[in-house]
Design goal:
The structure is a single chain. The chain is α+β, with helices and mostly antiparallel strands and 456 residues long. It folds into 2 domains: 178 residues, no CATH class; 247 residues, 3-Layer(aba) Sandwich (YojJ-like (1). It has 14 helices and 23 strands. The strands form 4 sheets. The protein has a 10-stranded mixed beta sheet, with helices on one face. The protein has a 9-stranded mixed beta sheet with strand order 15-18-17-14-21-22-23-19-20, sandwiched between helices. A two-stranded antiparallel sheet has the order 3-4. A hairpin with a 4-residue loop joins strand 1 and strand 2. Helix 11 packs antiparallel against helix 13. The longest helix has 20 residues. It is globular. This is DAC domain-containing protein. InterPro entries: DACNV, DNA_integrity_DisA_N_sf, DNA_integrity_scan_DisA_N. It comes from Geomonas limicola. Pfam families: DACNV.
Length: 456
């Protein structure tokens, strides 16, 4: 008997024919003109079409069978790309291109060959190249070395990776864990018999931007003051640059906690609550508090330094109206920018490590690190029902009982019910992430990364 389909959350509970269900889901999404247009704006010119259903079923089924095998007690992990070898330039290679290596003869495409190749095709650096010759079924033509920069899109960071062409890419990250992409865009993921498609990115929501608007405005004001005091011509910064830099740092923190597999809780509080929360209060107790020194505000200090340095190095007296933004940052080869980016990365790792201690890591919305080991008061009223947001802005929600979640989630719900301006980020041991906030009159949570690449 087939499971049920939940259209709004873009989730399908399948029966036992997982690969076929996944292929059907992919073909169904490919019938959505808006989805196709987003993946390939010039669809009529990009030349991409899905393979025949039977061929794609063969590919997905073979990947699924390979995922159930073991390599010296380790799970089989690999990425494969379905594109003819001659379409990749022979002279390119990481970090700015793809390094193509063609086997002397085509290899059979089956689970045994994938099992043998997986250790050599390191998941984080290499893809297995697949071709689909007419009437012959899928075959393996060689390896495509991508380097590791592609992971920055998942973990947060400024380094750009060579864009994947508009073709099918399959990720296998564990037993029954498969994601199918067109280029870098995930179409659908299979994990534990559940098929999901990517949710919208909560960090791009208007409600988060509004919640942090005052803080970003304050940082921008400090930047303008430094600009005036410099006495030199600085480039103009994109007004959203500082907020995007902060967003990438939070992504890094979350990704490090997810990969640690121990879970964690981050609590962001309004900056005006800093003094109150560090004293005896009704909301939480923080076991390990940090004193009010510059080091507690290191992230904001680094953000301001990046903003000032970007404006300074791009300043041009012949073009005083020049504007620089995020793309200039990610492509910058300036040594000072590289050092500052590394420093932000290290702060993110440090904050993530604090979550290994039981309790919440407590941060102000100004990115001031207040302490860790925060215990949310059990005297706060419990929350029986919460709203599960089905879109980025939380305009569509569904009611969910809170009893089916863990201690961290329930504590976050209690806090956000009492402190309406607080934002909690709950990372589970299974790597799922919830962002929790009082929104439209209810405790609301967003699933930030439950439908990306499973196990990664």
């Amino acid at each position: 008997m087939r499971g049920h389909r939940v259209i709004n959350s873009c989730s399908v509970a399948t029966g036992h024919s997982y690969p076929k269900d996944l292929v059907s889901f992919i073909f169904e999404r490919w019938q959505d003109p808006a989805f196709v247009e987003r993946l390939c704006p010039s669809h009529s010119d990009c030349g991409f079409q899905l393979p025949e259903r039977s061929v794609l079923e063969q590919v997905i089924s073979t990947c699924y069978q390979a995922s159930l095998m073991r390599e010296e007690e380790r799970p089989v992990m690999f990425r494969l790309i379905i594109r003819d070898s001659h379409l990749f330039p022979a002279e390119e290679g990481p970090p700015t291109g793809m390094h193509r290596l063609i086997f002397s003869r085509l290899r059979p495409f089956n689970e045994y060959e994938l099992h043998r190749l997986a250790p050599a095709a390191d998941f984080y650096r290499t893809l297995i190249g697949i071709t689909l010759p007419p009437n012959d079924g899928a075959q393996i033509w060689g390896l495509l070395h991508s380097g590791t920069r592609w992971m920055h899109a998942v973990y947060g960071g400024r380094k750009t990776s060579p864009p994947l062409p508009v073709c099918l890419v399959v990720y296998v990250t564990g037993a029954g864990q498969i994601s199918v992409c067109i280029g870098s865009e995930i179409i659908a993921s299979l994990n534990g018999g559940q098929i999901n498609c990517p949710s919208l990115d909560v960090f791009n929501s208007q409600w988060i931007a509004k919640s942090l608007a005052m803080v970003h405005s304050e940082t921008l004001e400090l930047h303008h003051k430094a600009r005036q005091e410099s006495g030199r011509v600085w480039a103009n910064l994109d007004p959203d640059f500082g907020s995007y830099l902060g967003q990438q740092a939070v992504r890094r923190i979350i990704s490090v906690i997810r990969n640690s597999h121990h879970g964690g809780l981050l609590v962001y509080l309004p900056e005006e609550m800093t003094a109150e929360i560090l004293k005896e209060n009704r909301y939480m107790s923080i076991k390990y508090q940090f004193l009010e020194f510059e080091s507690r505000q290191r992230f904001r200090t680094l953000t301001l330094k990046v903003m000032n340095t970007m404006a300074e190095i791009h300043g041009d007296p012949a073009d005083p109206d020049k504007v620089v933004g995020w793309q200039d940052y990610v492509t910058s080869k300036n040594d000072s920018i590289a050092l500052l980016d590394e420093a932000i990365f290290d702060v993110a790792h440090f904050i993530a490590a604090l979550s290994a201690v039981d309790g919440a890591v407590v941060i102000s919305k100004r990115q001031e690190l207040l302490g860790f080991g925060g215990v949310i008061s059990g005297d706060l009223d419990s929350v029986g029902m919460v709203a599960h947001a089905l879109d980025t802005e939380g305009a569509r929600t569904e009611p969910v009982l809170s009893e089916g979640v863990g201690t961290r989630h329930r504590a976050a719900y209690r806090l956000c019910q009492r402190l309406h301006e607080a934002i909690a980020i709950v990372i589970s041991q299974d790597e799922s992430v919830q962002i929790v906030k009082w929104h439209n009159g209810a405790v609301t949570y967003w699933d930030q990364v439950p439908t990306g690449v499973p196990g990664f």
